[in-house]
Specification:
The complex is a heterodimer of chains A (about 70) and B (about 475).
Chain A (H helix, E strand, L loop, with lengths): L6 H11 L8 H24 L9 H5 L2 H6 L1
Chain B lengths: L2 H6 L2 H9 L5 H19 L2 E4 L1 H16 L11 E5 L26 H8 L3 E6 L33 H8 L5 E5 L6 H7 L2 E4 L20 E5 L2 H11 L26 E5 H4 L5 H16 L3 E5 L7 H16 L1 H6 L6 H10 L4 H22 L4 E5 L12 E4 L2 E4 H6 L4 H4 L4 E8 L5 E8 L4 H14 L18
Parallel strand pairs in B: 2-3, 2-4, 7-8, 7-9
Antiparallel strand pairs in B: 1-3, 4-6, 5-6, 5-12, 9-13, 10-11, 12-13
Helix pairs in contact in B: 3-4, 8-17, 11-13, 11-14
Classes of the chains: A mainly alpha (about 70), B alpha/beta (about 475).
């Protein structure tokens, strides 16, 4: 996937968020942020399938979640 | 018995010999120390081994067993421990320069359980730095090498543990698995790797990659050994709803009559390297011949597992390393530092979406597992690439190695379900191929039972002794 974020935008974002960069720079930084946008887009898609889904912090939560009861 | 013969015995076989006083723990420990001296320089599986400590523990075990006090089947066996699990008698480096001198003040609970059961900590194994990758091309401690071809990676991040088992340098090993890091090196080195159900084995005292996905699991030379170790390190007994299975994988027979196996073709079987596809197809035929009913199932949401996994790992790892990244960033390898810097950009909302999405995948697969006993897939779509190789060709595309490694394994970290990799054949360059078997929450015994039936019906898990022919190859 081609970077959807320009190098300059990526660098400004890092500066704005106060993220010190020593390893990442240039196209690699832009590419990685583009990959993250792709992940985030997929997550929005899957969660949209089940708007009632909650953030569950343990397997016990999952077991007793209302969604689980509904599916049973 | 000759030392080399002892090294070729499984943990279960050695346990029987020790219980019958036919072999002493000192003989076993000495055999491993000699083996490590002879073969470890070629593969770099260990970061630390302390022969004095091992000898002392082995002599103590020998005396105790001679007096008739056998603590457990693990008493007198020697375990190789991944170096991100805290041990008070050894440094715990997590494969990093940053922690190269760090010695914890106490053992992780999983280590305490092993010691209480009488197991002897043989040493700490090499790994991908902070478990943040699957190749074990560790620059500070040196790359771990695949014993089947030392120009190839062993997989990771628990690569040293898998290599130690494959070459008979220990009775069994411990690894950690956040996105496949027990199962993948096991698959690439031709041994058994079990990721138990999330919550079954404590992860306290493990230097995390990502707390909510991390698991501790055994890497062993046979399925019985994996069951034997799990009984000791697991904190909860299985409460399988499928009553015919027990914690002991040795059923009345190794037939799988009445067992239904789900084959999730979508995502898990596309694309694969041809040799992996062929080996997996053959394995399914073996399972069918054992009496299992093969049912095609569709776990569509598994395709989101990579996005969920990366989002969570990027965010949680960046959180854990936040302080060191600002004070000691030069101590990290470039690739680790780049991943941690990337993680600092991850929005909290995306992390929460990923945790929400996990529940959807869990409920989808739980629904499937209400209709079948287990799922069977390849452990990974390729065989071990060469050291320093960054991309592979798969399905007509050039892809980065790490995402390809983990794509078939991480759905079971995301959902927390038990999964095992067992050897099922050989591909390019004679490199091993792994078959993955997964089942429902706390149905670890189901996984073990099916894995045992498969490995008893095949001999892929014993082929590794041909590796002794290659030990003298130069590095």
């Amino acid at each position: 996937m081609e970077p959807r974020i320009s190098v300059r935008t990526a660098q400004e974002l890092a500066k704005g968020l106060g993220i010190g960069l020593n390893a990442l720079e240039g196209n690699d930084l832009a590419q990685r942020l583009t990959d993250m946008l792709s992940f985030i887009g997929e997550l929005d898609d899957v969660v949209a399938r089940n708007p009632a889904s909650m953030m569950l912090v343990s397997m016990d939560d999952w077991e007793h979640h209302p969604l689980s009861e509904a599916q049973r | 018995m000759k030392p080399d013969d002892l090294c070729r015995r499984s943990g279960s076989e050695l346990a029987n010999l020790i219980a019958r006083h036919e072999v002493s723990p000192v003989e076993v420990a000495d055999a491993y120390l000699t083996k490590i001296h002879d073969v470890n320089p070629a593969v770099n599986a260990f970061i630390s081994v302390d022969s004095d400590l091992v000898g002392s523990a082995a002599r103590a075990a020998e005396v105790e067993i001679a007096r008739g006090h056998l603590r457990s089947p693990l008493h007198g066996l020697c375990v190789a421990v991944k170096d991100n699990i805290e041990t008070e008698q050894f440094t715990t480096t997590a494969g990093s320069k940053l922690l190269s001198e760090w010695r914890p003040t106490s053992d992780a609970p999983v280590i305490r359980r092993l010691k209480e059961a009488g197991a002897i900590i043989l040493g700490k194994t090499n790994m991908h730095e902070f478990a943040y990758g699957g190749t074990c091309t560790n620059r500070y401690f040196g790359a771990v090498r695949n014993p089947w071809d030392i120009d190839h990676v062993p997989g990771g991040s628990s690569g040293g543990s898998a290599v130690a088992v494959a070459l008979g340098m220990c009775s069994f090993a411990l690894g950690t698995d956040t996105a496949g890091s027990v199962r993948l090196p096991a698959a690439m080195c031709g041994v058994i790797g079990l990721k138990p159900t999330l919550g079954r084995v404590p992860i306290d005292g493990v230097i995390p990659l990502a707390w909510s996905l991390d698991h501790v699991g055994p890497i062993t030379s046979c399925v019985d050994d994996a069951a034997m170790v799990l009984k000791v390190i697991g904190s909860r007994s299985s409460h399988s709803v499928k009553g015919e299975f027990t914690d002991d994988p040795r059923g009345p027979s190794n037939r799988l009559d009445g067992v239904s196996l789900g084959i999730p073709k979508h995502y898990f079987y596309e694309p694969l390297w041809p040799d992996v596809e062929k080996a997996t197809t053959n394995a399914l035929e073996v399972l069918g011949n054992l009496g299992a009913k093969l049912v095609e199932v569709d776990w569509r949401s598994a395709q989101y597992s990579n996005s969920i996994t990366w989002t969570i790992i990027l965010a949680e790892a960046a959180t854990y390393h936040r302080r060191w990244l600002s004070t000691d960033d030069e101590a990290y390898e470039w690739a680790t530092r780049a991943n941690l810097e990337q993680g600092a950009f991850m929005p909290a909302t995306a992390y929460i979406q990923a945790q929400r999405a996990r529940s959807i995948l869990y409920h989808d697969v739980t629904h499937i597992l209400s209709q079948v006993d287990a799922l069977v897939t390849p452990a990974l779509p390729i065989t071990a690439p060469r050291i320093a190789q960054e991309t592979v060709e798969l399905g007509g595309k050039t892809r980065k190695v790490n995402p390809v490694f983990i794509r078939l394994a991480n759905p079971f970290n995301v959902t927390g379900l038990p999964a095992i990799s067992v050897p099922c054949g050989y591909g390019q360059h004679g490199l091993p191929i792994g078959l993955q078997i997964a089942s429902g929450r706390f149905d670890d015994a189901v996984v073990l039972r099916i894995a045992r039936a498969y490995t008893e019906a095949t001999d892929w898990d014993t082929e590794r002794w041909s590796l002794h022919l290659r030990e003298s190859r130069p590095t």
